[in-house]
Every structure is written in C-alpha cells, then in structure tokens.
Amino acid sequence: MSDRPPTSVLLPTTRWTDTCAELAAQLNDGDELLIIHDCPNDPVADQAPHHEKVRIITAGKPTGCSGKANAIAAGMGAARHDRLVWTDDDYHHPPDWLATLNADYESHGPTSEVPYFIGRDPLSVLLEPLYASAGSLGLYLGNQIWGGAVIFSRNDIDEVAFLDELRRTVSDDGLLMEYLEVTTVSRTRTVPIGGTIREAIERPVRWTQILRWHFPSAIAGTLAISLVVLTGAIRAPLPTAAVLTVLHLAINEVLGVRRWTAVLAYPAVFVFVPLLFYALIRRTFVWGGRRYRWRGKFDVTVVKNQR
Predict the structure, then answer these.
(1) For 92, which of 120, 193, 233, 263 is 20 to 30 Å away at the CA?
(2) Orientation angle between helical segments 122-131 and 265-281, nearest 10 degrees
(3) Which is nearest to 26 in space by CA: 82, 115, 102?
(4) Mind listing the pLDDT tens digit for each residue in 183-201?
(5) Considering the domain boundaries, does residue 91 fall inside one?
C-alpha cells in the first residue's frame, strides 16, 4: 500500500455493475467508494454486497438540475476525504486505474483521462469518427475535463460556489471546466454509447447544449468548420473523402485507438451537420431516463421523470 492521501471515489449509478466491483477492489486503506443513486428503490440498494469501504448514498430525485449533477453534488457532500475522483459506470476500469490516477495527481495536480466513444447502434457507429475529432481530440489537446475520469482536491476549486451552481445546471464536467485546470493525460478509455437510434440522437443534442451554454465560442467554431467541410464534401467528394479518412486515421493514432470506423468520416459529415442544427433548436432532450428543458446555464427544468 502507498502512503498517498485517502481518496473518495464518486460513482453515480443505479445498479451494482462490474465497474462497482472493479473500483471496490482497487481501494487502499482509508479510501472509500461512494455509489450514488437517486431513490431508495433503485436496484443498487439491494444488489450491493457488504463492503467496509463502499457506501451507498441516496441523492434523491433532481429538481432544478440533471440527475448526474445532483448525484455528484450529493457525493461531494457525503465524501469524507479532500481528494476526489469522479467516474462513470459505462467503461472498464483496469486494476491499476485508481492508483495511476493518484500517481498522476502527485505529478501533475488535477488530472483527467480521455474518452473514445464506441457506437452500439448504426447511427452511433457512423458518428464515431466525428465524435473522436470534435470531442475526444479537443479534450486531449485542450487539457479539458471528462467527468468519467478526473481527480482533484477540494482546495483546487471554490467548492461552495461550485456546488451551488452544480445544483442548478446539467453538465457536471462542463461546469467543472470553469473552476478547475487539469492536465489531460494520453490514456484513452473506450466507452460504449447508444444502443438505440433514439439514444444516438439524444446524445448529440445534450453535448451540443453543453457547448452552447458553457462554451458558446466552441459551438460557433464547430458549426463554422462543419459547414466548410460539408461544402467541400458536396463540391469535391473524392478529395474530401480521402482527406477526411486519412485525417481521422491519424486522429485515432493520436488517441491510441485503432477503429475501422475512420473510413466513415466522409458520410458522417452529411449526418453530423444537420444533427448540430437540430440540437441547437431542440427544446428538450432525454438523459438517463429523464427529459430536461435547459433554457440557460442555470435554468433547468425536469420536464418528465421517467425513473
């Protein structure tokens, strides 16, 4: 065991998954894993085995924020330690994951990893290369935060102000980017997404809305570049297809993920650009079984609670 400070790992989930077991096995003496769910009748309340370092936290249903933001706020309030790790339950955490993140903190301070989204339905598969270039690569090159793998300490942020705003917004990591500077290390975690066409449509709506309210210049730049690329794809299809394919193969190499879906970059443009505009005019979106209306950065309504 190392002599590093104890760590509180925050994991929002409603079920005891493989990720819960993976993280519980990585805890040092003094560490704790907080499984944060919404309601007492969520399956995790009965599924979780007894573990002295694992605590089950009931956050309650969100009212003026997303379920994820509500869970993280509850988890930070319940956590016993100053060093915090946020993570998600939808990807594999290798046995050295927590130890490596803690070592990163000792070397770099606040640290985040990079996600690479792997589609589980036809539309999500088609959009994979553009999620890599417009999302993952930007996080890596810009030292930006992914809420699925980030470590920091309470004294790295203005915690009181952050939690007040977190309880009034949608995006946990979008808001954290405004409070915290991180080093994004070159470790990519593959994250399965989608499963249905509906999920594949709702996800870019949410992501676009996050950019709209937290980083308006970024969404403006994404729209402008996307329109230029789409124009080139229409006017010069063969050269554009060749350039996009080679470019996305190179992006995958930078991210350390080799996926055949790089060859879909050209046709993906014809779907991605209309989805961006659709996402900007869409009034509501579904995330985690709830429908939200996001009128402003701190103006969130839970329109329909389906859980």
Answers:
(1) 263
(2) 90
(3) 102
(4) 999 999 999 999 999 999 9
(5) yes
